[in-house]
Structure formats: structure tokens, C-alpha cells
Amino acid sequence: MANPVNRFSKCPKEFSRREATVVIADGVLSRKLSDFKPQELVNLVNGFSKWPVEPGCRKAAVAIAGKVRPGQLSVFEPHALANLVNGFSKWPVEPGCRKATVVVVGEVRGGKLSHFDPQALAFLVNGFGKWPVEPDCRSATVAIAGEVRGGELSCFDPQTLANLVDLFSKWPVERDCRKATVAIAGEVRGGELSYFDPQALAVLVNGFSKWPVEPHCREATIAIAGAVLSRKPSDFEPQHLTNLVNGVSKWPDEPECRPATVAIASIMRRGQLSHFDPQAMAVLANGFSKWSNEAACHQAIIRLARDLGTGSRRFGDFTTPQLNMIAHALGRSCMRGEDTGEITETALLSDRLHRLAHHLEYAADRLEQADVLIIATIFKAQSKARLFDVLGLLAPIGLIHGSGFIAENNLESMGNLCAPLLPLACNSQKIDAPTP
What we know:
mainly alpha; about 425 residues
């Protein structure tokens, strides 16, 4: 059973192999798992993980995960343990897969990480990254980061280096994760970027951006920004573009980051946005706003705004932090539009901010539960667009937190919150604007 599944998994896109694997998965559930050798179990999990949405594959993998017990893993070789973790990680919501992975963590931490080759280490980190709130997964990843930092990075292929950065960035406060990423950034900066595919480049930039004060991360990102310009726009998928903009926007003062962002903005301006989810739209708007004086970036924000609040992009589809990023971008673009005399486009931006304000008025719990920085940013955006009437409607909702709200925030935060409201203080009629 294990050998056919292992062969079929080499071609996961072939429907006949998928069907055959599902049949085998049902057969596994009817057998005693003790009948299988350790490597056979590994091959089964690895094979089933190629079709994670198949109920039969999921059930069989969960059944195997249930048999993973502490003290019983010494028969598994390091690479086999890594494959188990990588396989179980395809079903992160399954408690059995999470528990089995934690058991493997204990085995990994109790052994020597030097026994794991670069690919095995990458598999482990990839798997542990699916449960970032699990303390054992976190500590094991930190230990692996230490091993990576002290090892020979040239042993890792480009895709593996990108995956490691992506996963270390889930724990940015961990010293070893930071140092390992900085070491990888140095390797990337001095290496040949043509070996990295578009996805890897985007993942690297997004990961490096978690440590913007690190010179190596900044320099590696600058190098990648230049490399992006030599690639075809069609090489990058929507998520790649989003990650690139999000990453390079952490260094808006770097001249080399500007051309890459402008190039991506030009793609966004001409293309369709249906492939971008709400999170991506918010990230893109926020990133482009760092260069709002660039015509291409400004036009890309206009393009994003045009669909905002419509049937396909309702405000209710966005989280409050996402709306916060979008409001910030629209507010900055409004000021740019006023300075350049772009009346029609500025009117569109103001209209979307106006609609957003009314959404927040009726969905009052959003502002009531938001932190002071989000509220202040939304207020500032409305103020920049001179939408003082709707700002007067939002102000009572945003300030409804009471005395505890003031006690929990410092004077600077409260000042940022109140500054956009100063025009209202000069007009009692606007302050007292009724709410429905």
C-alpha cells in the first residue's frame, strides 16, 4: 500500500492517481496500523498530504497521527521524522496532527539537529510553522534557527532558504530567528538572485521586512527589488506582488525600492483585482501610499478604491485593521489629489471614505472594540479628506471607551486621536451631529 501511494504522489495532478490513493486511504483505515513498518507509515502520510482536501486522505493521516506516541519514535530516521511533520502540517486544524507534531518536537529536541540534512530541517520548520502559538513548536524552531545560523548556508537551495526566512519571520522577537534570517540575508545579498523563482523572491522580501532595522535585511531587499525589475510581470502571481509591496514598503526612503513598487503599481493599474483578497488589497493600498507622489502608485490606489464598498468588495468583507490601512491610504491620496488639482479622482477617494464612515457608523462595534491607533488613523483619514460632517458622527463612537480607554493609553496616543477632531471643536453643531 505504501509504495503505490509514494509513487502516485509524484504526480498529484493526475486524476487517476488521486482516485487510486483515495481508495488506498480507505484500505489503510480498515487495517491495523501496527502491520505497517515505520517507513511505510511515513510514505503513506507523505503521499496522502499531496491531496489534503480529500476526506479519505485526511482521515487516514489523522489515524496514523493518533499512533504517534512519546518514546516510540527512535525507530524513525531524521528524514522520516521531518516527512511526518511536513505531512501532518497539511491538516493544521486537526488536533491529532498537532499532537503528533508536538511529540515529534520532543524527539527532535532530545536528539541532535546536526543529524538532519538541510531539506529535513526545512521540512521541520515548515511543519512547526503551522502551529506558531504552540510553545514546543516555537522552541524547536528557535533551536533549528540556531543550527542554521551556525551551519553552511550554501548547502541550502534557494527555495529552502526562502522557506526558512518565511517561517523564522513568524517569531520575529526570537533572537536566534533574527540572527538566522540576517545570516540568510547576507547569503542572498552576495549570491546570484537569478536562481530564485518569483515566489521565493517575494517570500524573502516579506520575511526580511520583519527586521527593517537590520542592515543585511535592508541590503538584501534592495538587491531583490532591482532583480524584480528584470522579471516579466506575468511571472508573479497576486500573492507574490502583495508580498513584494508589503516588504519593500518597510524601506520607503531607499531609492532602489521605489522603481520596483512603481512597476508593480503599473501592473495593478492595468489589471483586474478579482484575484486579490481583502487582506491583499489592504496591504497593497498601504504599501503604495508610501509613494503616493508617484503617479503610478496614486493611480493604483484609485483603481483599488473604485471597487471598494461595492458588491464585490463590501466593507464588511474587511477586518477593522484592514479598513484602517485602506483609510490611511485613501486619506494620503486625497491630499495628493488636492495638491495636483485632480478633482474627479479626489472626489472618488472622498466618496469611498464617506461610505466607509457610514459603514463604521452602523457597524459601531468596530470602533468601540478597536485600539486607539486604529481609531486615530481612521479619524485622520476623514480629516485629510475634509469630511468633517461624517467625522462628527464617528467621534462619539470612537471615544465611547470611557475612562479606561484614556488610562490605557499615553498622552501621545491620545494627542494623535484628538488632533483630527480639532476642527470639530470650533463648530458645536458638528460635534452634536445626531446619530440615527
